Hints:
By secondary structure, the chain is an alpha/beta fold. The chain has one domain (7-257): Alpha-Beta Barrel (TIM Barrel), CATH 3.20.20. It is built from twelve helices and eight strands. An eight-stranded parallel sheet has the order 3-2-1-8-7-6-5-4.
Amino acid sequence: MPAPHNPFKHALKNNTLQLGCWLGLADAYAAEISAGAGFDWLLVDAEHAPNDLRSIVAQLQVIAARDSHAVVRPPIGETWVIKQLLDAGAQSLLIPMVESAEQARSLVDAVTYPPHGVRGVGSALARASDFAAIGDYLTTARDEICLLAQVENQKGMDALDDILAVDGIDGVFIGPSDLAADMGFIGQASAAEVKDAVVGAITKIVKSGKAAGILTLDQELQEKCRDIGATFIATEIDVTLFARTIRGAAKDAAQRLHRA
């Protein structure tokens, strides 16, 4: 029996648009609700959210019971971190702050078993192999792993052509917030100069034949990236969605019910 089918990876390969939501609440209950909401993919964030390996596993478990696909972003693209996430059952990874082809190649090595890579062989202990119930896991796992590189500063943008040339990288994701900061527009991801850089990068990624992705709450930019050919677009963040909704609910209650 081979490794489980990765619908997200194959959808990107077929240029099928995948709409997603960022999960930063670090809570399996919230992840389960999100997994039933109708998004194609959910990003479990361990870079800027208080997730650890156990909380990530809990979220992978509840998401697996629904139709959404889990993508995990580690805090850093180190081989040992990637090994743990893969063994825990993550099949799609978004690696932050990729800045060179050399770094991209090291990431490919990290998700690939020897003799072609350096991923540690411990699948008998792993949720990924259904605890050794998937007999062909070691020989088929790589085919179902989706490896996404996040380019989010000027150094990465300058190396984008080289990163796109690395075999084994399935897609490249542009991070507007960090890019804006690096361009001198911190907190201004909607600045025209930043949007132009994002659109230029997305265009280049699509032309390379790799999947292009982005997270933005800017609906105009979402539509522009879709029109260019981006195939994985995150349109919401659970933290900000909850925060603005709960604040709006409190404000509405106060306005309606407080006596003058």
